Please model this.
Amino acid sequence: MTPMLLVLVLLAAILLFWAVGAYNRLVRLRCEVGRAISALDAVLSLQPALIQASLPSVLTSDALADGSSTYWSRLGSAGDQYARSLANARAQPLDPEAVSALCAAQRVLDDVWRSAEPTAGDREAHDASLPDGMISRFERLADQVAGPREAFDASIKAYNDAVRQFPALLLARIWGFKPAAGIHPPNPG
Model:
């Protein structure tokens, strides 16, 4: 074997091992995103469950007759939209559109929840008549989301850094690894 051929074989072997290592790193980071969305999903899925548990006790024939079900209809619709968006993001955590749709659904759900909070002196005129403690349970759920959301965003950042890092970005494009989007905290009221 000539020295030139030996050098070419060594370079090819190094390139092959590097490519396999880069691929394995991207797959590992993609799996970490999957684990992070699972932990986040465990907390996020409590919101639609809270809504569903509250709706039957509120949507009675009396509520439908006096028109006070408007809030609950909006909350039920926002909860359904949120649940569908969450299922889509769970199935495709690296799809920026799925994650963006989840963020939008979260903002809508937050807005509907906030519309149930009566202003000072407006409790009697407020038509939502929330069961006791429902807003506080929603706020506790929102607080519980912070840690898993940060972990998900950190896993997305690590994945995106690897996908965009040269020269791995060349192989990432060949293998179909694309940048993803994180879940950012909703804008306060």
Helices lie at 3-44, 46-58, 61-66, 70-91, 96-115, 134-164, 168-175. Residues 3-44 form the longest helix (42 residues).
